[in-house]
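Fill in residues.
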């Protein structure tokens, strides 16, 4: 199904994907950038978006410039400097929901680095390839455990509605699927059931 075009709210899409995270947070409540960064890290969305202080402020400035968000006063805690709080504009919220609608409806062609590396797994040789896959599996297991802790903290301690952290469920499902494939492939290599080019040798 083709994406629905918004004739009412034509807008240039933000170049940095981090804008999605910023706009999503502002659906919940107005925030200043420091609070945005804290929320993104607590929800482990810094694993999905490249998050630095500079990139976050650049993204906020770009969204203000293009009319997606606007200042909504300031907030000051203790002796700290006042921080500008931002909220959606009416046009920005409409543009954001149109953008989300398109992203969810249409699977995009993505180019993860792991997929590119797996294409040349044979170059490592059986022993080294199995070791590399086992190490990746351990890292994936650690990531899943950390994600579970963050999810419990968000839903049980901070009482975030499940819908506001549902991306964590998707991330867990993707990590589990990758983990199953990585472990199965490592086992096939170790059992010798995955055919290997005769010329490949381990270091």
């Amino acid at each position: 199904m083709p994406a629905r075009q918004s004739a009412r709210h034509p807008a240039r899409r933000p170049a940095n994907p981090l804008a999605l995270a910023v706009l999503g947070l502002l659906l919940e409540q107005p925030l200043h950038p420091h609070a945005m960064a804290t929320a993104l890290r607590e929800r482990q969305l810094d694993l999905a978006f490249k998050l630095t202080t500079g990139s976050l402020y650049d993204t906020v400035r770009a969204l203000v410039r293009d009319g997606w968000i606007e200042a909504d006063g300031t907030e000051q805690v203790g002796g700290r400097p006042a921080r500008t709080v931002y909220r959606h504009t009416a046009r920005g919220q409409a543009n954001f929901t149109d953008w989300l609608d398109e992203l969810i409806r249409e699977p995009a062609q993505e180019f993860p680095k792991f997929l590119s590396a797996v294409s040349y797994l044979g170059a490592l040789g059986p022993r080294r390839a199995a070791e590399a896959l086992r190490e990746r599996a351990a890292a994936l297991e650690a990531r899943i455990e950390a994600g579970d802790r963050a999810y419990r903290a968000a839903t049980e301690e901070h009482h975030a509605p499940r819908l506001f952290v549902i991306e964590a469920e998707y991330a867990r499902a993707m990590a589990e699927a990758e983990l199953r494939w990585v472990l199965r492939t490592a086992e096939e290599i170790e059992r010798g059931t995955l055919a290997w080019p005769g010329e490949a040798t381990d270091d």
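Helices lie at 18-28, 33-42, 53-65, 90-105, 113-118, 126-157, 166-191.
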